[in-house]
Specification:
Layout (H helix, E strand, L loop, with lengths): L2 E8 L3 H12 L1 H8 L1 E9 L3 H4 L8 E3 L3 H4 L4 E6 L7 H10 L3 E4 L2 H18 L3 E2 L10 H8 L5 E7 L2 H13 L3 H11 L7 H4 L2 H15 L9 E2 L7 H9 L2 E12 L2 E12 L11 E8 L3 E8 L3 H18 L29 E10 L5 H11 L4 E8 L6 E7 L2 E2 H12 L9 E5 L4
Parallel strand pairs: 1-2, 1-4, 2-3, 4-5, 5-6, 8-10, 10-17
Antiparallel strand pairs: 7-9, 7-11, 9-10, 11-12, 13-15, 13-16, 13-17, 14-15
Length: 435
Protein backbone atom coordinates (compact mmCIF):
# COMPACT_ATOMS: atom_id res chain seq x y z
CA UNK A 1 0.00 0.00 0.00
CA UNK A 2 1.38 3.42 -0.97
CA UNK A 3 1.88 5.63 2.08
CA UNK A 4 0.90 9.30 2.02
CA UNK A 5 3.54 11.91 2.90
CA UNK A 6 2.46 15.49 3.43
CA UNK A 7 4.88 18.34 2.74
CA UNK A 8 4.99 21.84 4.19
CA UNK A 9 6.92 24.27 2.01
CA UNK A 10 8.39 27.57 3.22
CA UNK A 11 9.06 29.78 0.20
CA UNK A 12 7.68 29.61 -3.31
CA UNK A 13 10.18 31.39 -5.49
CA UNK A 14 11.96 29.85 -8.45
CA UNK A 15 13.03 26.70 -6.61
CA UNK A 16 9.81 26.29 -4.62
CA UNK A 17 7.64 26.57 -7.71
CA UNK A 18 9.98 24.26 -9.63
CA UNK A 19 9.72 21.65 -6.88
CA UNK A 20 5.93 21.87 -6.80
CA UNK A 21 5.63 21.70 -10.59
CA UNK A 22 7.85 18.61 -10.88
CA UNK A 23 5.96 16.91 -8.04
CA UNK A 24 2.73 17.50 -9.93
CA UNK A 25 4.05 16.64 -13.37
CA UNK A 26 5.77 13.39 -12.34
CA UNK A 27 3.49 12.43 -9.47
CA UNK A 28 2.92 8.81 -10.54
CA UNK A 29 6.56 8.22 -11.40
CA UNK A 30 7.73 9.62 -8.06
CA UNK A 31 5.19 7.48 -6.19
CA UNK A 32 6.38 4.38 -8.03
CA UNK A 33 10.03 5.06 -7.16
CA UNK A 34 9.52 6.18 -3.57
CA UNK A 35 6.65 3.94 -2.51
CA UNK A 36 4.86 7.05 -1.28
CA UNK A 37 2.27 9.57 -2.42
CA UNK A 38 4.21 12.78 -1.80
CA UNK A 39 2.10 15.92 -1.91
CA UNK A 40 2.31 19.51 -0.75
CA UNK A 41 -0.26 20.32 1.94
CA UNK A 42 0.86 23.83 2.97
CA UNK A 43 2.89 26.68 1.48
CA UNK A 44 3.90 29.75 3.47
CA UNK A 45 5.08 32.95 1.79
CA UNK A 46 5.08 36.68 2.48
CA UNK A 47 2.37 37.37 -0.11
CA UNK A 48 -0.04 34.39 -0.34
CA UNK A 49 -2.16 36.09 -2.99
CA UNK A 50 0.66 35.66 -5.51
CA UNK A 51 0.93 31.90 -4.93
CA UNK A 52 -2.73 30.87 -4.64
CA UNK A 53 -3.29 30.93 -8.45
CA UNK A 54 -0.19 28.77 -8.99
CA UNK A 55 -1.20 25.76 -6.87
CA UNK A 56 -4.16 23.40 -6.72
CA UNK A 57 -7.16 24.15 -4.50
CA UNK A 58 -6.20 21.52 -1.92
CA UNK A 59 -2.95 23.37 -1.02
CA UNK A 60 -3.31 25.71 1.95
CA UNK A 61 -1.39 28.93 1.33
CA UNK A 62 -0.57 31.22 4.25
CA UNK A 63 2.06 33.61 5.59
CA UNK A 64 2.96 32.15 9.01
CA UNK A 65 5.56 29.34 8.95
CA UNK A 66 4.41 28.18 12.38
CA UNK A 67 1.27 26.83 10.67
CA UNK A 68 3.53 24.23 9.05
CA UNK A 69 5.34 23.44 12.30
CA UNK A 70 2.10 22.94 14.22
CA UNK A 71 0.37 20.80 11.59
CA UNK A 72 0.55 17.18 12.82
CA UNK A 73 -0.16 15.80 9.35
CA UNK A 74 3.01 17.29 7.87
CA UNK A 75 5.88 14.78 7.88
CA UNK A 76 8.56 16.77 6.03
CA UNK A 77 9.26 20.47 5.71
CA UNK A 78 10.93 21.95 2.63
CA UNK A 79 12.81 25.20 3.22
CA UNK A 80 13.39 27.16 0.02
CA UNK A 81 13.01 30.71 1.34
CA UNK A 82 16.78 31.35 1.51
CA UNK A 83 18.73 33.58 3.87
CA UNK A 84 19.65 32.93 7.49
CA UNK A 85 16.53 34.11 9.31
CA UNK A 86 13.75 33.15 9.56
CA UNK A 87 14.99 30.01 7.75
CA UNK A 88 17.14 28.91 10.71
CA UNK A 89 14.30 29.32 13.23
CA UNK A 90 11.91 27.49 10.93
CA UNK A 91 14.26 24.52 10.50
CA UNK A 92 15.16 24.30 14.20
CA UNK A 93 11.49 24.39 15.20
CA UNK A 94 10.69 21.70 12.65
CA UNK A 95 13.46 19.48 14.02
CA UNK A 96 12.24 20.01 17.57
CA UNK A 97 8.78 18.90 16.42
CA UNK A 98 10.26 15.72 14.95
CA UNK A 99 9.77 16.69 11.33
CA UNK A 100 12.32 15.83 8.63
CA UNK A 101 13.86 18.73 6.73
CA UNK A 102 14.85 19.27 3.11
CA UNK A 103 16.64 22.52 2.34
CA UNK A 104 18.31 24.21 -0.62
CA UNK A 105 19.88 26.84 1.64
CA UNK A 106 23.68 26.54 1.29
CA UNK A 107 24.36 29.84 3.09
CA UNK A 108 22.41 28.73 6.15
CA UNK A 109 24.07 25.31 6.33
CA UNK A 110 27.56 26.76 5.79
CA UNK A 111 27.01 29.23 8.62
CA UNK A 112 24.79 27.25 11.03
CA UNK A 113 25.12 23.66 9.85
CA UNK A 114 26.85 22.34 12.98
CA UNK A 115 23.97 23.48 15.18
CA UNK A 116 21.34 22.16 12.76
CA UNK A 117 22.96 18.74 12.24
CA UNK A 118 23.50 18.27 15.99
CA UNK A 119 19.84 19.05 16.70
CA UNK A 120 18.70 16.69 13.94
CA UNK A 121 20.83 13.84 15.27
CA UNK A 122 19.46 14.36 18.77
CA UNK A 123 15.87 14.42 17.48
CA UNK A 124 16.39 11.42 15.17
CA UNK A 125 15.34 13.24 12.02
CA UNK A 126 17.02 13.81 8.66
CA UNK A 127 18.25 17.11 7.27
CA UNK A 128 18.79 16.60 3.54
CA UNK A 129 20.41 19.21 1.31
CA UNK A 130 21.20 17.83 -2.14
CA UNK A 131 19.74 20.97 -3.72
CA UNK A 132 22.09 23.24 -1.74
CA UNK A 133 25.12 22.34 -3.86
CA UNK A 134 25.29 22.42 -7.68
CA UNK A 135 21.54 22.37 -8.40
CA UNK A 136 20.53 19.26 -10.33
CA UNK A 137 23.91 17.51 -9.96
CA UNK A 138 23.58 14.68 -7.37
CA UNK A 139 27.00 15.37 -5.85
CA UNK A 140 25.95 14.95 -2.21
CA UNK A 141 24.50 11.51 -2.96
CA UNK A 142 27.61 10.63 -5.00
CA UNK A 143 29.91 11.45 -2.07
CA UNK A 144 27.78 9.76 0.58
CA UNK A 145 26.75 6.68 -1.39
CA UNK A 146 28.36 6.16 -4.80
CA UNK A 147 31.86 6.91 -3.50
CA UNK A 148 31.36 5.55 0.02
CA UNK A 149 34.16 2.98 -0.48
CA UNK A 150 36.68 5.70 -1.35
CA UNK A 151 39.15 7.68 0.68
CA UNK A 152 38.44 11.05 -0.96
CA UNK A 153 41.63 12.93 -1.84
CA UNK A 154 40.24 16.14 -3.29
CA UNK A 155 37.23 17.85 -4.83
CA UNK A 156 37.34 20.69 -7.35
CA UNK A 157 34.24 22.26 -8.81
CA UNK A 158 32.77 24.97 -10.98
CA UNK A 159 29.77 25.53 -8.73
CA UNK A 160 28.63 29.03 -9.56
CA UNK A 161 26.98 29.42 -12.95
CA UNK A 162 27.10 33.23 -12.91
CA UNK A 163 30.89 33.30 -12.68
CA UNK A 164 31.30 30.55 -15.25
CA UNK A 165 29.10 32.43 -17.70
CA UNK A 166 31.13 35.60 -17.20
CA UNK A 167 34.50 33.86 -17.62
CA UNK A 168 33.34 31.87 -20.65
CA UNK A 169 32.04 35.03 -22.33
CA UNK A 170 35.17 37.03 -21.53
CA UNK A 171 37.27 34.30 -23.14
CA UNK A 172 35.05 34.02 -26.23
CA UNK A 173 34.70 37.75 -26.86
CA UNK A 174 37.73 39.41 -25.24
CA UNK A 175 35.40 41.85 -23.48
CA UNK A 176 36.10 43.37 -20.07
CA UNK A 177 34.65 41.99 -16.83
CA UNK A 178 32.28 44.93 -16.14
CA UNK A 179 30.83 44.74 -19.65
CA UNK A 180 30.13 41.00 -19.42
CA UNK A 181 28.73 41.34 -15.90
CA UNK A 182 26.19 43.86 -17.20
CA UNK A 183 25.14 41.36 -19.88
CA UNK A 184 24.82 38.60 -17.27
CA UNK A 185 22.54 40.85 -15.22
CA UNK A 186 20.43 41.66 -18.27
CA UNK A 187 20.05 37.94 -19.05
CA UNK A 188 19.12 37.09 -15.46
CA UNK A 189 22.30 35.11 -14.69
CA UNK A 190 23.51 37.71 -12.18
CA UNK A 191 21.63 39.56 -9.46
CA UNK A 192 21.33 43.34 -9.32
CA UNK A 193 23.87 43.11 -6.49
CA UNK A 194 26.19 40.36 -7.77
CA UNK A 195 28.68 40.47 -4.87
CA UNK A 196 27.64 37.10 -3.43
CA UNK A 197 28.48 35.38 -6.71
CA UNK A 198 31.39 37.29 -8.22
CA UNK A 199 33.38 37.57 -4.99
CA UNK A 200 33.27 33.80 -4.47
CA UNK A 201 31.03 33.70 -1.38
CA UNK A 202 28.39 31.45 -2.95
CA UNK A 203 31.07 29.04 -4.16
CA UNK A 204 32.68 29.10 -0.70
CA UNK A 205 29.44 28.04 1.00
CA UNK A 206 29.07 25.12 -1.39
CA UNK A 207 32.66 23.85 -1.22
CA UNK A 208 32.55 24.07 2.58
CA UNK A 209 29.55 21.73 2.58
CA UNK A 210 31.28 19.31 0.21
CA UNK A 211 34.43 19.39 2.36
CA UNK A 212 32.32 18.60 5.41
CA UNK A 213 30.78 15.57 3.71
CA UNK A 214 34.03 14.30 2.22
CA UNK A 215 36.34 14.80 5.19
CA UNK A 216 34.06 15.00 8.20
CA UNK A 217 35.15 18.48 9.21
CA UNK A 218 32.59 20.76 10.88
CA UNK A 219 31.41 23.65 8.74
CA UNK A 220 33.59 26.68 9.43
CA UNK A 221 33.55 29.55 6.95
CA UNK A 222 36.51 31.18 8.73
CA UNK A 223 38.71 28.43 7.31
CA UNK A 224 37.87 29.10 3.65
CA UNK A 225 40.26 31.23 1.60
CA UNK A 226 38.10 33.24 -0.81
CA UNK A 227 39.02 35.20 -3.94
CA UNK A 228 36.47 36.25 -6.55
CA UNK A 229 36.70 37.15 -10.23
CA UNK A 230 35.92 40.88 -10.18
CA UNK A 231 39.59 41.88 -10.60
CA UNK A 232 40.32 39.53 -13.48
CA UNK A 233 41.40 41.20 -16.70
CA UNK A 234 40.58 39.97 -20.18
CA UNK A 235 44.27 39.88 -21.11
CA UNK A 236 45.02 37.30 -18.40
CA UNK A 237 42.29 35.09 -19.82
CA UNK A 238 43.85 35.59 -23.27
CA UNK A 239 47.40 34.84 -22.07
CA UNK A 240 46.18 31.73 -20.22
CA UNK A 241 44.52 30.51 -23.42
CA UNK A 242 47.76 31.00 -25.36
CA UNK A 243 49.56 28.92 -22.74
CA UNK A 244 47.02 26.08 -23.02
CA UNK A 245 44.82 26.90 -20.02
CA UNK A 246 41.37 28.26 -19.27
CA UNK A 247 40.58 30.30 -16.20
CA UNK A 248 37.73 29.01 -14.05
CA UNK A 249 36.49 30.04 -10.62
CA UNK A 250 37.01 26.84 -8.63
CA UNK A 251 35.93 25.68 -5.22
CA UNK A 252 38.66 23.33 -4.04
CA UNK A 253 39.05 21.14 -0.99
CA UNK A 254 41.91 18.71 -0.39
CA UNK A 255 42.92 16.39 2.42
CA UNK A 256 46.67 16.96 2.68
CA UNK A 257 49.35 15.87 5.16
CA UNK A 258 49.32 19.39 6.64
CA UNK A 259 45.52 19.56 6.97
CA UNK A 260 42.28 20.09 5.07
CA UNK A 261 42.40 22.87 2.48
CA UNK A 262 39.21 24.72 1.58
CA UNK A 263 39.71 27.50 -0.95
CA UNK A 264 37.95 29.46 -3.68
CA UNK A 265 39.81 31.39 -6.37
CA UNK A 266 40.23 31.74 -10.13
CA UNK A 267 42.51 28.98 -11.40
CA UNK A 268 44.22 28.00 -14.63
CA UNK A 269 42.94 24.59 -15.74
CA UNK A 270 44.61 22.76 -18.67
CA UNK A 271 42.48 22.86 -21.82
CA UNK A 272 42.62 19.06 -22.08
CA UNK A 273 40.73 18.61 -18.81
CA UNK A 274 36.97 18.14 -19.04
CA UNK A 275 36.45 20.74 -16.33
CA UNK A 276 38.13 23.38 -18.50
CA UNK A 277 35.49 22.80 -21.17
CA UNK A 278 32.46 23.45 -18.98
CA UNK A 279 30.90 26.52 -20.59
CA UNK A 280 28.22 29.09 -19.92
CA UNK A 281 26.16 28.81 -16.75
CA UNK A 282 26.75 25.07 -16.32
CA UNK A 283 28.28 23.49 -13.21
CA UNK A 284 30.67 20.56 -12.84
CA UNK A 285 32.46 18.84 -9.97
CA UNK A 286 35.47 16.52 -10.12
CA UNK A 287 36.07 14.12 -7.23
CA UNK A 288 39.33 12.21 -6.77
CA UNK A 289 39.05 9.02 -4.74
CA UNK A 290 41.66 6.37 -4.06
CA UNK A 291 39.63 3.53 -5.61
CA UNK A 292 37.38 5.18 -8.20
CA UNK A 293 40.11 7.71 -9.12
CA UNK A 294 38.67 10.80 -10.89
CA UNK A 295 34.96 11.17 -11.66
CA UNK A 296 33.14 14.15 -13.16
CA UNK A 297 29.59 15.29 -12.35
CA UNK A 298 28.05 17.80 -14.75
CA UNK A 299 24.73 19.57 -15.06
CA UNK A 300 22.64 22.65 -14.42
CA UNK A 301 23.58 24.32 -11.18
CA UNK A 302 20.51 26.52 -10.88
CA UNK A 303 16.97 26.97 -12.15
CA UNK A 304 13.57 26.10 -10.78
CA UNK A 305 12.99 22.58 -12.07
CA UNK A 306 16.65 21.43 -12.08
CA UNK A 307 17.05 22.42 -8.43
CA UNK A 308 13.54 21.17 -7.67
CA UNK A 309 14.66 17.79 -9.02
CA UNK A 310 17.33 17.67 -6.30
CA UNK A 311 14.79 18.67 -3.61
CA UNK A 312 12.53 15.83 -4.69
CA UNK A 313 15.44 13.36 -4.69
CA UNK A 314 15.84 14.15 -0.98
CA UNK A 315 12.10 13.75 -0.41
CA UNK A 316 12.23 10.32 -2.05
CA UNK A 317 15.14 9.27 0.19
CA UNK A 318 13.26 10.40 3.29
CA UNK A 319 10.10 8.62 2.13
CA UNK A 320 12.04 5.36 1.86
CA UNK A 321 13.35 5.64 5.45
CA UNK A 322 10.32 7.04 7.28
CA UNK A 323 9.52 3.64 8.78
CA UNK A 324 13.15 2.77 9.54
CA UNK A 325 14.26 2.85 13.16
CA UNK A 326 16.27 5.97 14.03
CA UNK A 327 19.33 3.93 15.02
CA UNK A 328 19.44 2.31 11.57
CA UNK A 329 19.28 5.52 9.51
CA UNK A 330 22.46 6.77 7.77
CA UNK A 331 24.74 8.99 9.85
CA UNK A 332 24.52 12.72 9.32
CA UNK A 333 27.01 13.78 6.64
CA UNK A 334 29.28 15.90 8.83
CA UNK A 335 30.01 13.22 11.43
CA UNK A 336 33.03 10.95 11.17
CA UNK A 337 32.52 7.38 12.38
CA UNK A 338 35.83 7.56 14.28
CA UNK A 339 34.84 10.74 16.09
CA UNK A 340 38.15 12.31 15.05
CA UNK A 341 38.45 15.70 13.40
CA UNK A 342 41.09 16.41 10.79
CA UNK A 343 43.16 19.58 11.27
CA UNK A 344 42.64 22.62 9.05
CA UNK A 345 45.42 23.70 6.70
CA UNK A 346 46.94 27.15 6.92
CA UNK A 347 46.59 28.81 3.52
CA UNK A 348 50.28 29.71 3.52
CA UNK A 349 51.12 26.00 3.65
CA UNK A 350 49.31 25.01 0.47
CA UNK A 351 51.43 23.88 -2.45
CA UNK A 352 50.51 24.87 -6.00
CA UNK A 353 52.03 26.02 -9.24
CA UNK A 354 51.48 29.60 -10.31
CA UNK A 355 50.89 32.08 -13.12
CA UNK A 356 52.34 35.56 -12.59
CA UNK A 357 51.97 38.62 -14.80
CA UNK A 358 54.51 41.27 -13.82
CA UNK A 359 54.37 44.70 -15.51
CA UNK A 360 57.92 46.07 -15.68
CA UNK A 361 60.02 48.76 -17.31
CA UNK A 362 61.64 47.65 -20.55
CA UNK A 363 65.33 48.11 -19.68
CA UNK A 364 68.41 45.91 -19.10
CA UNK A 365 68.69 44.08 -15.77
CA UNK A 366 64.99 44.00 -14.90
CA UNK A 367 64.52 40.34 -15.76
CA UNK A 368 67.61 39.44 -13.73
CA UNK A 369 66.13 41.20 -10.68
CA UNK A 370 62.87 39.30 -11.05
CA UNK A 371 64.45 35.87 -11.49
CA UNK A 372 66.85 36.47 -8.58
CA UNK A 373 63.92 37.12 -6.22
CA UNK A 374 62.15 34.01 -7.49
CA UNK A 375 65.27 31.90 -6.89
CA UNK A 376 65.86 33.42 -3.43
CA UNK A 377 62.43 32.12 -2.41
CA UNK A 378 63.12 28.58 -3.66
CA UNK A 379 60.64 28.88 -6.52
CA UNK A 380 61.42 27.08 -9.77
CA UNK A 381 60.40 28.69 -13.08
CA UNK A 382 58.63 26.43 -15.57
CA UNK A 383 58.42 28.98 -18.40
CA UNK A 384 58.83 32.70 -18.94
CA UNK A 385 57.78 34.95 -21.80
CA UNK A 386 57.62 38.70 -22.36
CA UNK A 387 54.66 40.51 -23.85
CA UNK A 388 54.71 44.08 -25.08
CA UNK A 389 52.47 46.23 -22.91
CA UNK A 390 49.30 47.37 -24.66
CA UNK A 391 49.71 50.88 -23.27
CA UNK A 392 53.35 51.10 -24.47
CA UNK A 393 54.56 51.61 -20.91
CA UNK A 394 57.16 48.89 -20.73
CA UNK A 395 56.65 45.16 -21.00
CA UNK A 396 54.90 42.39 -19.13
CA UNK A 397 56.67 39.29 -17.89
CA UNK A 398 54.45 36.21 -17.91
CA UNK A 399 55.89 33.55 -15.64
CA UNK A 400 54.71 30.00 -14.91
CA UNK A 401 56.23 28.22 -11.92
CA UNK A 402 56.62 24.66 -10.77
CA UNK A 403 55.05 23.65 -7.46
CA UNK A 404 55.86 26.02 -4.62
CA UNK A 405 54.59 26.92 -1.19
CA UNK A 406 52.01 29.70 -1.07
CA UNK A 407 53.84 31.57 1.68
CA UNK A 408 57.06 31.63 -0.37
CA UNK A 409 55.23 32.86 -3.47
CA UNK A 410 53.49 35.63 -1.53
CA UNK A 411 56.83 36.73 -0.05
CA UNK A 412 58.36 36.86 -3.55
CA UNK A 413 55.39 38.90 -4.84
CA UNK A 414 55.80 41.45 -2.03
CA UNK A 415 59.52 41.80 -2.74
CA UNK A 416 59.01 42.17 -6.51
CA UNK A 417 56.18 44.65 -6.05
CA UNK A 418 58.56 46.93 -4.13
CA UNK A 419 61.03 47.13 -7.05
CA UNK A 420 61.21 50.50 -8.81
CA UNK A 421 61.20 48.63 -12.12
CA UNK A 422 57.77 47.11 -11.45
CA UNK A 423 55.25 49.68 -12.66
CA UNK A 424 51.90 48.14 -11.76
CA UNK A 425 50.14 45.49 -9.63
CA UNK A 426 51.44 41.95 -10.07
CA UNK A 427 48.73 39.45 -11.05
CA UNK A 428 48.96 36.06 -9.31
CA UNK A 429 46.80 33.06 -10.25
CA UNK A 430 47.13 29.41 -9.26
CA UNK A 431 47.21 26.46 -11.62
CA UNK A 432 45.22 23.28 -10.94
CA UNK A 433 46.35 20.30 -13.00
CA UNK A 434 43.56 18.11 -11.48
CA UNK A 435 45.50 14.84 -11.53
Amino acid sequence: MTKAIKIGMAGFGNVGKGTYDVLQKNKDLIAQRSGADISVKRVVVRKPERVIPLVSEDVIVGHDWKDIINDPEIDVVVEVMGGIEPARSFIMEAINKGKHVVTANKALLAECGNEIFAAAQKAGVNVAFEAAVAGSIPIVKALREGLAANDIKWIAGIINGTCNFILSTMRDTGRAFDDVLAEAQKLGYAEADPTFDIEGIDTAHKIMLLSSIAFGVPVNMQKVHIEGISKLEAKDIKFAEELGYRIKLLGITKNQDYGVEVRVHPALVPNRRLLANVEGAMNAVVVKGDAAESSLYYGKGAGGEPTGSAVIADLVDIARTLNVDVSERPKMPTLRHSGEQLPWADFGDIVASYYMRIPVEDRPGVLAEITRIIADNNISIESLIQKESLDNKGTEVIMMTHSAKEAAVQKAIRTMQALSSVNGPIVLLRKEELV
